Automatic annotation (TrEMBL):
Name of this chain's protein: Threonine/homoserine/homoserine lactone efflux protein
Domain of life of the source: Bacteria
GO molecular function: amino acid transmembrane transporter activity
GO cellular component entries: plasma membrane
Keywords: Cell membrane, Membrane, Transmembrane, Transmembrane helix
Membrane-crossing segments per the record: 6-30, 42-67, 73-90
Mode of membrane association: Multi-pass membrane protein
InterPro entries, sorted: LeuE-type
Length: 139
């Protein structure tokens, strides 16, 4: 199937804008880097990048078109994403005292946790899911 050059250009421009505008992913990566050092920040970035690749693959196979056709499924993903972001915020608030007395700074953030949470913040990010749905609707 030939690729529509205008649609591809629109997709690339929209993707670049979506990645440049700071959002929950960028804030999460910065937080991981501040708490766990460069290694945790890089692993969180790798998790976000992995998730972006998953979004592209999902859009390519047409799951985004399913979300466009079934708005309830899209709403479920958006609500799950919002709930996960609230969970991360509550965890940050609950553990802020540990950061002030140095206990969590010494412990840091595990690489595995940084990677997986980075992947989840992007997979459940309504902005990224919505981008795929909008592009699928234009097809």
């Amino acid at each position: 199937m030939p690729v529509d050059a205008d649609l591809l250009t629109l997709f690339l421009l929209t993707s670049i804008v979506a990645m440049v505008i700071p959002g929950p992913d960028m804030l999460f990566v910065l937080g991981c880097g501040m708490r766990g050092g460069a290694r945790a920040g890089l692993l969180a970035t790798a998790g976000v990048a992995t998730s972006e690749a998953i979004h592209v693959a999902v859009a390519a196979v047409g799951l985004a078109a399913l979300f466009a056709a079934a708005p309830t499924a899209f709403t479920v993903v958006r609500v799950a994403g919002a709930a996960f972001l609230v969970y991360l915020g509550v965890q940050a608030i609950r553990h802020r005292r540990e950061g002030l007395d140095g206990a969590s700074a010494a412990r840091g953030v595990s690489g595995r946790r940084a990677y997986l949470n980075g992947m989840l913040t992007n997979l459940l990010n309504p902005k990224m899911v919505g981008l795929g749905v909008r592009l699928a609707a234009e097809r």
